[in-house]
Write a structure and sequence with these properties.
The chain is built from 6 helices and 9 strands. The strands form 2 sheets. It has a 7-stranded mixed β-sheet, sandwiched between helices. Strands 1-2 form a two-stranded antiparallel ribbon. Helix 3 links the parallel strand 3 and strand 4.
Length: 202
């Protein structure tokens, strides 16, 4: 499918199709940027962390990679907040079949619906594997969690997202913004930006 995108005086003709790089029956390429190109045509790319967070949290189908059987883990709080604010949320953990009373999937590829975004709350090593799986599945947005600890973000994961057309938030937490936020996380966000542990722009 040829999609023409106009942005001011720029016009690009891109061969794109939905869901990864698997071959179509007619032999053409499936390029993961299709949904992203269609949904963002004519829009400005978010540049501040807050704007990127609001755009991410406006999506409906979000997975959280790293949700644990331990309900006190940060990923679990993110999962519960997203679920409680009306998102269709999916837990990902290869070592569990159920968390937070919901089905848990072993991988991004195993989630039975097309995802609008994935929050990654794992070690950086696992995060790299997860963003590669997101690219293969055509996921257009990734949030690499980072709070007070070392977080999930790495230069390699961020670069991979950029190279594969994935909008990436390299730090911070969904619980710092919008309906999922609380006062403690909002205060943490301000402090971590002051000490340059999370970005002001993405």
């Amino acid at each position: 499918m040829f999609v023409t995108l106009r942005d001011g005086c720029h016009e690009a003709c891109t061969v794109v199709h939905h869901r990864g790089l698997r071959p179509r029956p007619d032999g053409g390429p499936w390029i993961a940027a299709y949904d992203r190109a269609m949904s963002t045509a004519g829009q400005s790319k978010p540049t501040t962390l807050r704007a990127a967070a609001e755009e991410f949290l406006a999506q409906q189908r979000i997975a959280v990679a790293g949700v644990s059987r331990d309900a006190h883990q940060p990923a679990n709080l993110i999962y519960r907040r997203l679920r409680d604010t009306g998102h269709r949320v999916f837990a990902i953990n290869p070592h569990a079949t159920e968390v937070e009373g919901d089905v848990c999937y072993p991988s991004v590829a195993a989630v039975p619906e097309d995802l609008d975004g994935v929050v990654v709350v794992t070690t950086p090593e696992v995060a790299q594997e997860t963003v590669e799986a997101c690219a293969a599945a055509g996921v257009p947005r990734v949030w690499l969690h980072r709070g007070l600890g070392p977080g999930s973000s790495s230069e390699e994961a961020v670069s991979f997202c950029h190279e594969h057309g994935i909008d990436v938030i390299p730090g911070g937490c969904p619980n710092m913004f919008g309906a999922t936020a609380d006062a403690g996380h909002a205060c943490m966000c301000a402090v971590l930006q002051l000490v340059h542990r999370i970005p002001r722009t993405v």
